[in-house]
Amino acid sequence: MGKKDYREIMDEEQLIAESGTTYTEEKKEVTPAEVVEQKEDPEAEYEEICYICRRPEHVAGKMIRIPSNINICRDCMQKTFDSMSNPGFSMDDIFQMNMGKMPNISMINLDDLPGYVPNSQKIKKKKPKEEQEPAIDIRKIPAPHKIKSSLDEYVVGQEHAKKVMSVAVYNHYKRIASDQKDDVEIEKSNMLMIGPTGCGKTYLVKTLAKLLDVPLAITDATSLTEAGYIGDDIESVVSKLLAAAENDVERAEHGIIFIDEIDKIAKKRNTNQRDVSGESVQQGMLKLLEGAEVEVPVGASSKNAMVPMTMVNTKNILFICGGAFPDLEDIIKERLNKQSSIGFQADLKDKYDKDENILQKVTVDDVRKFGMIPEFLGRLPIMFTLDALSEEMLVRILKEPKNAIIKQYQKLLAMDDVELIFDDEALAAIASKAKEKNVGARALRAIIEEYMLDIMYEIPKDDNIGSVTITKDYLENRGAPIITMRSCPVIKDSSVPKLAAGN
């Protein structure tokens, strides 16, 4: 069968299917039970993928189903027919080989081929135009002040950062929901957040996405490399968003991508090697940030022959980049110290050494000098900083948020019918110890874990314990926690030697 004959046959079958006519066989009536079964079929909402070229149905066209649940597109089937028409050897020779002339060679059994595709690599079908709902209902998106009040329940402090994010996200989804009947087109406003480690950059984005109920992909830039090198391709950030949207392309095109550790792709200084994970990654991300049709792998971090590919438009995807930018303080201090003069009224060179919030004085030129290229910064028009955590903020983080660390341990001991109490001096001591570690709020859990180990081990031994009070003396290894029994009011801490701090 030639190439032209096969094409004509497939076109005739498509015309017959579109016209609604059938062959001489009678139409089979579909019972209501079969209709329900078809609607409930989970595979019906996913596209078929070619077994050979791994292209989805909306790219390759209608598929041809062969036994063992294998789908092949028309292009691959045509190539198969072409190779059979001019194989270079006789098909009779192959069958004779299989019949015994060459016993070590056998025909391929289609039942042995893995025809299935993992769910992580399946793409959901697009809905027909008449069934499509608005991508974003602006009436369901809360106003900026409501977004900020919701963030206040989970995040302590960072008032400026929460206000900036609330307004930016609200305007972004107004941009998606707005019609383009007039000539005014609202441009996308990606964000760049700068803050010291442990100040709540990632936690802010996680809380924001949970409140808005939109797909969120959180990835880090440390593993990104230029295409063709070991590491994740740049398009993998969009692949993670597609996976978060359950491979629904339309839903993923209105999601949020948070790229953490963005400072790790800064230009490398004083190096003679090819910068495959620095400036080249920034240049490759330009089209993603601005908005373009990007071909991304489905269910994988890099492109290869065995992974399905699909097109995703990043025009309506909000990108939020964050990083600690170490040593950026030195660049800011150098710029500020240059403004000082010589004389009695000149500023001291160590004036800004003890300023914890010196990052608030950052400018675009400082970030560019750090190693970010101007084209990259131009696609992140909203740049803001987060405050360093003080001891007062650390105390509030311990007890005020909905999922505060103290509340988590109180819930654990409540399962044993034991009340856990932290006095104010103990909270201040924990915050002081965490401040010394210079890792932000991450130090709080490490410190509490250290002192709660003996308590969590010993308390379940005695069912008569009613409450445990953590004191400053216990945290400073000068005593034990105060234990209250159910039968008697209070037992002095010296009567429970096993709970004394051992560190």
Describe this structure in words.
The protein has 503 residues and is of the alpha/beta class. The chain has three domains: 3-117, no CATH class; 190-385, 3-Layer(aba) Sandwich (Rossmann fold); 391-499, Helicase, Ruva Protein, domain 3, CATH 1.10.8.60. Helix content is 38%, strand content 11%. The protein contains 20 helices and twelve strands. It has helices spanning 3-19, 32-39, 57-60, 74-85, 91-101, 144-152, 159-177, 201-212, 236-244, 249-252, 279-284, 286-290, 328-337, 364-370, 374-378, 391-399, 405-414, 424-437, 442-458, 472-475, and strands at residues 63-66, 70-73, 191-194, 216-220, 256-260, 293-297, 309-313, 318-323, 382-385, 419-422, 465-470, 482-485. The strands form four sheets. It has a five-stranded parallel sheet, sandwiched between helices. Strand 1 (63-66) and strand 2 form a beta hairpin. The N and C termini lie far apart (83 Å).
Q: Which structural class is indicated by helix and strand composition?
A: alpha/beta
Mean pLDDT value? 77
Alpha carbon gap, first and last residue: 83 Å
Report Rg: 31 Å
Low-confidence stretches: 15-28, 32-39, 490-503
CATH homologous superfamily assignment of the largest domain: P-loop containing nucleotide triphosphate hydrolases
List the domain count as a whole number: 3
How is the secondary structure organized here?
Blueprint: H1 3-19, H2 32-39, H3 57-60, E1 63-66, E2 70-73, H4 74-85, H5 91-101, H6 144-152, H7 159-177, E3 191-194, H8 201-212, E4 216-220, H9 236-244, H10 249-252, E5 256-260, H11 279-284, H12 286-290, E6 293-297, E7 309-313, E8 318-323, H13 328-337, H14 364-370, H15 374-378, E9 382-385, H16 391-399, H17 405-414, E10 419-422, H18 424-437, H19 442-458, E11 465-470, H20 472-475, E12 482-485
Parallel strand pairs: 3-8, 3-9, 4-5, 5-8, 10-11
Antiparallel strand pairs: 1-2, 6-7, 11-12
Helix pairs in contact: 6-7, 13-14, 16-18, 18-19
